[in-house]
Design a protein that fits this description.
By secondary structure, this protein is of the alpha/beta class. It contains 13 helices and 16 strands. Helices cover 41% and strands 22% of the residues. Strand 13 and strand 14 form a beta hairpin. The longest helix has 18 residues.
Length: 377
């Protein structure tokens, strides 16, 4: 049973520890939950900033609904960082509900986000609790940009892109969990929103983003479709939404795309056990270990939403840095609101809809993590 109001599940992972950094910064006590308490203690001692001033405990729990419900009980908010979420996420969502906790997580894996909405949205609403996937750099920054665009009258169609720069090379600067989630998307059917309906992207869909922020075009992919078409599907303001992701390292993105083509040609119809082994091998070969802490001189992001109406258009851009550090900040921004009982929504809702996109943007701006720009076209 948790002694403190916030649970960080996946506490020995990269994003979990960054979330704890920000909770400590805001003087919020927390319970760290993971499968191996000894490893958590060792990793926190190495990587969590200001740990000596923190109020916290460590609980060991198996990844089952029963064990996690027991660990979460007594808390108010669960911050879940255990991925790939399409494989592991729903267990944490169910456990948080049974423990009477709000649930925040850090993924935009579209298949998982849709499953959370369809299986748990109404149950969380009935319990007066929030379940909010994807409260993270990806795709909260893109959603903030989209909401800024929607502030302009008449906008009803959105196209968003999340463009990131970090160390060069596939897997460089990306966590093991993120890499696993990236390659897990080969087994999903990415969708975009068209006339209020989710429509599957054509196999092999790619984008070439000609952004005014770059000299060269950026090669981008649907990236499982992202969470945004799901979040905007029932928004009365929006008729269509299409989203993509690109890294400044075009060669790395093209390698991901080539692996996707190989998956379609050779692996798609294999038994699940064989697919699991292939994905494990790809993940381990590209991201063998936890990356170092991000540097602002390396990790920079540009998230853009182009909004269109019948005769109007607007471009909203959110510039950012240190995507994983920003994710910890966003989780903590949500925690602050939930501990205060200050949420616009219960049930299934995005971070921007639950807490307000202006609040999230302001939280990031005050900490030097984001800056927004809006231009009418």
């Amino acid at each position: 049973m948790a002694k403190y109001p916030v649970v960080v599940y996946g506490a020995s992972g990269y994003t979990g520890m960054l979330t704890m950094d920000w909770l400590i910064d805001q003087n919020i006590p927390f319970t760290a939950v993971a499968r191996d308490a000894k490893r958590v203690k060792e990793m926190m001692a190495q990587r969590v900033v200001r740990l000596e001033s923190a109020t916290y405990e460590i609980i060991e729990a198996e990844h089952t609904v029963k064990s996690l419900t027991k660990a979460f009980k007594g808390a108010k908010v669960v911050c879940n960082t255990v991925g790939p979420f399409v494989k592991y996420g729903l267990t944490g969502v169910e456990a948080a509900l049974k423990a009477g906790c709000h649930h925040l997580d850090t993924t935009g894996e579209q298949a998982y986000v849709r499953a959370v909405r369809d299986q748990f949205g109404e149950l969380y609403s009935q319990a007066g609790l929030l379940v909010s996937p994807s409260l993270a750099y990806m795709y909260s920054y893109s959603e903030i940009a989209a909401e800024l665009a929607l502030e302009h009258p008449g906008i009803d169609a959105l196209q968003t892109s999340a463009l990131c720069r970090g160390p060069r090379g596939i897997g460089a600067g990306v966590t093991v969990g993120s890499t696993a989630s990236i390659f897990e998307m080969y087994r999903s059917e990415p969708c975009y929103l068209w006339e209020k309906e989710l429509v599957t992207h054509p196999v092999g869909k790619t984008y070439t983003i000609n952004s005014p922020d770059f000299m060269d075009p950026v090669f981008a992919l649907p990236w499982s479709g992202t969470s945004l078409p799901v979040y905007f599907q029932n928004d009365p303001r929006v008729r269509s939404c299409e989203s993509c992701v690109g890294f400044y390292d075009n060669d790395a993105m093209k390698m991901v795309h080539a692996l996707g083509e190989k998956w379609e040609a050779e692996y798609k119809n294999l038994p699940v056990e064989q697919q699991d082994a292939i994905l494990k091998q790809i993940t381990e070969s590209t991201t063998p270990s936890m990356p170092p802490r991000e540097r602002t001189t390396l990790v920079r992001t540009v998230d853009t939403a182009i909004g269109r109406g019948i005769l109007s258009a607007v471009r909203a851009t959110v510039y950012g840095t240190t995507a994983y550090i920003a994710t910890g900040a966003l989780q903590t921004a949500g925690v602050i609101k939930l501990l205060d009982g200050d949420t616009n929504k219960v049930g299934f809702a995005s971070g921007s809809k639950a807490f307000g996109h202006r609040y999230l943007l302001g939280f990031l701006e005050e900490r030097g993590l984001a800056r927004a720009s809006v231009t009418e076209l």
